[in-house]
Amino acid sequence: EPEVTQTPSHQVTQMGQEVILRCVPISNHLYFYWYRQILGQKVEFLVSFYNNEISEKSEIFDDQFSVERPDGSNFTLKIRSTKLEDSAMYFCASRGQGAYNEQFFGPGTRLTVL
Amino acid sequence: SQQGEEDPQALSIQEGENATMNCSYKTSINNLQWYRQNSGRGLVHLILIRSNEREKHSGRLRVTLDTSKKSSSLLITASRAADTASYFCAPLAYTGANSKLTFGKGITLSVRP
Predict the structure, then answer these.
(1) Is residue A103 predicted with pLDDT exceeding 80?
(2) B51: Cβ contacts below 8 Å, ≥ 6 apart
(3) Distance from CA of B50 to the nearest CA of A (A)
(4) What's the pLDDT tens digit per position in B25-60?
(5) Which of A1, A43, A48 to probe the B interface (max B CBs under 10 A)?
(6) Which residue of chain B comes nearest to A52, CA vs CA?
(7) Cis peptide before A8, with omega less than 30 degrees from 0?
(8) A19-33, A88-102, B53-67: the lowest-pLDDT one
(9) Longest Cα–Cα distance in chain A
(10) Coil, strand, or helix at residue B83?
(11) I want to staple B25 with a disulfide (CB 3.0 to 4.6 A). Which of A61, B14, B69, B91 is the partner?
């Protein structure tokens, strides 16, 4: 069964460093999303991406964040200068075309900012 | 934003019993989805029910939707220890490119062996 994959599973970085989280969505999907979950808190929407552009972003998704679909298969989330409060699980999701299609989530990347 | 409120916050049952979890929402929806999250893992889509459907089954799962009451329930029959997880509902008002999911705090289900 096709699945969304994410790498790395765990990323440790120093505050102020740039990180890139990678996702490979399901191959025929057209809509892509990033969510995050701070430990013990709710899963929060960050950004949605369709047709090579951002469809919607939350207030969390400030200028330090960017997304890209560099090669038609990968979908990346970049944090330019990480802060301690960026420590969280980051989930990628994708969705196929159609009115009712569910979102499929990847296993997540645990980002730890020291 | 369209967010579901799950109830109860926590549920503890014996293996073999049924688990009923509820969700309420505030505005009109196109569909409502239920997800499961095992501790420290990603979200797994369980079932989607459309606004024009009243009940849907998938294996041991049964979902109902009452749009007049803006509520949904998820029933897991004959629960197993492996059903221990957090459960979330996600009502969706529209399904275009901006169809983000908004999650509540979820229901922590513990199934005792």
Answers:
(1) yes
(2) B28, B29, B30, B31, B32, B65, B67
(3) 8
(4) 998 998 999 999 998 788 999 999 999 999 999 999
(5) A43
(6) B97
(7) yes
(8) A88-102
(9) 42
(10) helix
(11) B91
Specify whether the CB–CB gap between B18 and B73 falls below 8 A: no
Q: Is there a contact between A100 and B30 if contact means CB atoms under 8 Å apart?
A: yes
Closest to A101 in 3D by CA, of A42, A11, A31, A8: A31
Residue from the list B44, B45, B105 with its beta carbon closest to the beta carbon of A42: B105
DSSP states of B2-57 as a string? ---EEE-SEEEEETTS-EEEEEE-SS--SEEEEEEE-TTS-EEEEEEEETT-SEEE
Using a CB-CB distance cutoff of 8 angstroms, which residues of chain B are in contact with residue A5? Answer: none
Residue of B3, B9, B39, B43 best to disrupt the A interface, most CBs of A under 10 A: B43
Burial class, B41, CB count within 10 angstroms (exposed 0-12 / middle 13-18 / buried 19+): middle
Name beta bridge partners: A22.
Answer: A7, A76
